[in-house]
Amino acid sequence: MSEYWILAAILLPIFGGVLTLLIPFKNRKIMMCYLEIVMLTTSAIVWKLILNGTTEVFHIIHFVEDLSISFKIDSISMIFAGLVSLLWPLAVLYSFEYMEHEEREKIFFMFYSITYGITLGIAFASDLLSMYFFYELLTLSTVPLVLHTLKREAVLASRKYLYYSIGGAAFAMIGLVFVIIYGVTCEFQLGGVLDMALIGERKNLLLWVYLLAFMGFGVKAAIWPMGSWLPDAGVAPTPVTALLHAVAVVKAGVFAMIRLTYYSFGPSFLRGTWVQNVVMGFAMFTILYGCSMAVKETHLKRRLAYSTISNLSYIIFGITLMTPLGLAGALCHLICHAVMKINAFFCAGAFMQKTGKSYIYEMDGVGRKMPIVFGCFTVSALGLMGVPGLAGFISKWNLASAAVESMNVQAYFGIGCLLASALLTAIYMMNTVIHAFFPGKDFNYGTLAGVTDPSWKMCLPLLVFSISVAVLGIFSGPLVHFLREAAGV
Amino acid sequence: MVIGSMNDAIIMLAAICFPILFGAVILLMPEFSSRNRLLGAVGTGLLVTGILALLTLGSGEAGICLFSLGEKLEIFFRLDNLGRIFIVIVTIIWILAGFYSFEYMKHEKEEKRYFGFYLMTFGVLLALDLAGNIVTYYLFYEMMTLLSVPLVLHSKTREALMGGLKYLFYSLCGAYMVLMGLFFLNRYATTLTFTAGGTLNGELTAGNEKVLLVVVFFMILGFGVKAGMFPMHAWLPTAHPVAPAPASSVLSGLIVKAGVLGVIRTVYFLFGESFIRGTWVQTAWMTLSLITVFMGSMLAYREKIMKKRLAYSTVSQLSYILFGLALLQGEAMTGALLHVVFHAFIKSALFLSAGAIIYKTGRTNVDDMTGIGKEMPVTIWCYTFASLALIGIPPASGFISKWYLAEGALSSGTGIFTWLGPVVLLVSALLTAGYLLPITIKGFLPGADFDYGSLQKREPNLWMVIPLIVLALLSVVLGIFPNPLTEYIRTIVSTVL
Amino acid sequence: MDFIQNVPFFSIMISMFSGIVSSILSEKWAKRLNTAVILAVGVMSGALLIWLCRTGCGSYIFMMGHFPAPWGNEIRAGVLEAGMAMFFSIVMLLSMTGGRKKLFDEVEYSKHNIYYILVDMMLSSLLALIYTNDLFTAYVFVEINTIAACGLIMIRQNGRTIEAAVRYMIMSLLGSGLLLMGICMLYDLTGHLLMSNIQQAMADIMANGTYRIPMLVTVGIMTIGLAIKSALFPCHAWLPDAYGYATVSSAAMLSSLVSKGYIFLLIKIFYRVIGLDIIYSSHIIGILFIFGLCGMLFGSFSAIGEKDIRRMIAFSSVAQIGYIYMGFGLGTQEGMVASVYHILVHAATKSLLFISAIGLTEVSGGSRSFFALNGSGYRNRIAGVGFAVGSLSMVGIPSFSGFVSKLLFAKAAIINPTWKMFPTVIVLAISTILNAIYFLKTVIRIYTPESALVEEEKGYYGIRWNQQRLYTVTIILFVILNLILGMNSQPVIHLIETGLANFA
Q1: Is the separation of the CB atoms in C41 and C15 below 8 Å?
Q2: Residue range B305-335, pLDDT digits in tens
Q3: Residue A416 in domain
């Protein structure tokens, strides 16, 4: 029976979203209630599924022969689905206030809701093909969100996003076909599904293919040099940037990489080969590249976007360790970064919406005027820096311990990259915080008249996220335990 | 998990939590109706914390594990003898500098924020001294950095903001180097709890010594950032002078010592001195600290802004301590720990007197201080006593510590450093005299053609003078009666060496 | 012999005769007759297909007038032929209905009659190409097809189309000339014109080892001839104008059916005339492979540079034909299956794109410029949806037909790891990106609303679905066809596999 619940979880937000466009709501409030109910119901279903535990494979549609759209719940789909199901309702709540002054909000909410369903589809997909299917749909359903403002730069950004994503998926598909042909099955299994007897002499070929597919999925995960769409896509409304370009979409890329590495090719096949060095090298470089660009950037949202690029590569670094502990570390950062970054983006959004400004040097003194928002922002900043007691430290700790444990010399340098990046993170985040709270000796607060904290709809998500950052940082035990179990430590 | 008596553990926690929470409450409260109320609250906070801290000292072997951030990431406090020394100096100086601030901060705005962070940092420092494992230490080390930044950039001038950021980034850079070491220790050590003699796991370590040596070097460098060790010293002369004087005094006197404590904990309590004895790490460490000793003094000598000069002096003096620790030798370590105590009192006194001069006259340049001794005799006398102690003129305190340091170096058997060390220390002492004493001399003996008519009495009031006097006295008296302290330190040293 | 076995012969004949009859009918009746014939052919082919599958006989040879070779003429029908015939008639029917409105705007009323005659002839020639078992018959119908196609291009009389038709004529005749030469040489070498006979003779010649080079030249000439006619890169110069300026029904049929007819003939020649082993061991296959790859890339590059939406879609055809030849070039059974599948996919998708593009340009003041299309997806919603679906299918989004053929190509390339594997998968990926660039750019543009002010100024208007019922139904049917091919591909693939197996 629980198979049909999976379908329900995926389809509910999709149809709910489409209905948003069709139902003539009397006023915004009713629409808000309606959407929030859809979101919460979906999340409730997701949690019911998660609590029920793992399931068998469930086939929906057959594309070709033995290739079908099918679903299954295993532990890492629980992690991803659980994560998005917690974030989505809050993000929708936030969007209500944020989108108040934007046009065409119905279309916005329609796609926002559809994307939820599709993301769940990625989480629950039981094989590479099904995941690929939702992966492509995710691109399509998010393009209208990037395009939302319809300004020239939005059009350009959405085109870029589209080309990059489709291109990445095209290369990922090569990997998909190879797994179909050289795999025992195409279903995900922890440890990989490749048929060693079939591969025989062609190991090197498969490694090349892995590299292609890895970089293909890497486009969504914004690995260098394919990440430049991400800062550009920041022209979208903040709820999109926050939820999709810091969590759902980019994490879908990372999630796909996990599926590819640990569940299809198998870490034991890849560990110690040249390809591991190459992909780890890319991850390490991206970590530093993202931070450096963030330091250089003066536009708040773009800075955060570059920070996302860097942090995503933390996760990728964990993946490329090719050890169970590495996977656990990667998953840990996947969760922690999601909460911290969505919080940071929401704060940035609140700032932009309330003041109409968007550059760091325009932020002088807003900390005093918007204490809740910038208090939360500071929490995120500290978390991203990896201050102990906050979420970022835990994930960094797990990642780095895994790196030490892997006994891989390159990984040791990777730790160096992590820490250098933490320092750069401190530079670009604290610089922002200090601008907000310490505007300089002769700052005239009169210029900020009328700037206040936003209403509860925006503040509630912020507070919830900030508290979760702290809670994750302090009581990480059960979570880390679960992640390790999921990773098969 | 509690070690020893429950009551002791609770007092310990109270000493840590009370000032942090109290400070946080002050920060979050709306503006006080009058300045006196604020001062009353802060004074109470300081005193209560002081009492709690002193009560902690009385307890026996006590420890408490609060909770775990994650597997192996326990927040664990334990009191040991080394911690006791640090607690004493922190408590004394913090309270004195706090009272000094009551007067000094009058001419600064936003006192509430200053005192809030001041109290919180107090608690964090106590927690650092009580930290029972490296994870806890690291946690509070980061917190200390973050909470002391607002003290540095208090005045919000461009200079202060830049100084604050520089301080922050250098400190974090150091902290991350330490964190790197933590990751490796997590794997190669049996436990992360501080244990005299080290906790490395012999089996795992075998074959990985090279990596671990790099790691320990990184950790020393990382903590060395806080202690102003070359090549990561540049933040110190920028950040310390821009803070309000009482803040500079605790920064220079105590917060930098957190770096020293970190080095001690790492080298003697985690890796174990035998692990690095005779390796390139020891050589590099000694070389860097000697370079810093000399360079710091030279830079101080060339510097004209008084507080900057004192900051450079801190750079130099801290490396005395680091050099003493690097020798991995009993006498030298005794000297180093003594110098920790002495330098804390001395440097605080010096900064407080510099603050008094700024507060009353607004002068910052050394050349403007001609005749200042006539105007503020008590202040300058205190300054002079502290200076003499720092230079190491017997019987003032600096002499004792330097004596032990030199003796330790001579009997350490570290090749060229056995004689190079003492020579550099001596040269540096001369330079110290060269940069500290001119103020006294010019201050009291402004010269024949000085216009005495412009002088006026500008002695600050008791809030400022008494802390100064107490600190100056301590710096001298401890030199005259060094034995109890020395004996106590010897017991610590004997456990680790 | 069952009655139903007469279906191939009947369908060719009724379409041919309906053409003749149409010349004396009025426009209206010609239209009805045309529709009825296409429908009838579709239904009959469907019935034949079902019969073939039911009885499991796979294929049979139909001798006209029961004269055996070499005097008689043979028709061969199998599941693949029947399926193709059915599919072609479906696409043709939809292309006709979708472009009907435009036909009235673009073509003189007095010429409509002729138009339907041409379409009837085209259908009969296509069916003949599909079913024939005789090379010379094939040649005859190739020529009929060319003439009909020229007429279809030219019927919209303006300078552009006449130029395009002339160009098409010249290139096409070059192609058919080469084909004819090839057939003559084959006849000379083997003494037969029936495919099955030639194949036997061919096998003997190859076994003897004589005439190897002439044989190769012959095959080469025939392949080149058909490649020119089906616009394989670099012989595609005639294509953009012909597809771009002809009236939309013609464009849709030309791109999705005519070129496919030739390709199907080429497949037949490969399988039934020359024999797969000989083809696969020659270099011809490698050359086709390389030109196929180049076509995939250069077709898309040209499309990216194109500002005229119709010409853009036309250039995209060059790329898609490149896919098909690339599949041949892989030289494996799987590659062939993928190619045949792509013939279907491309036919269904490309005609959808042409038909929906016309709806979009119509509501944009008739301008075909890419820049004028802003917001046209809102003004003509159904056309917008059609175009979006077609684009997504071409880009290869799962659940649309294009994805399946892409998957099949990739699998075919990988399952036999030769030097062709990596170029294939890489070019597939790159071509996907290129497709995305020009198709999705257009989709974004048609869904970027134009401001009301500009719309008013330029006199744009919206069209609702009830103002264009036939068009709407057409588009919906096309979309469904696409989705069926995308989501339920297994039966079709199975059909193709058995059909090809019967060929050999």
Answers
A1: yes
A2: 888 999 999 999 999 999 999 988 888 999 9
A3: yes
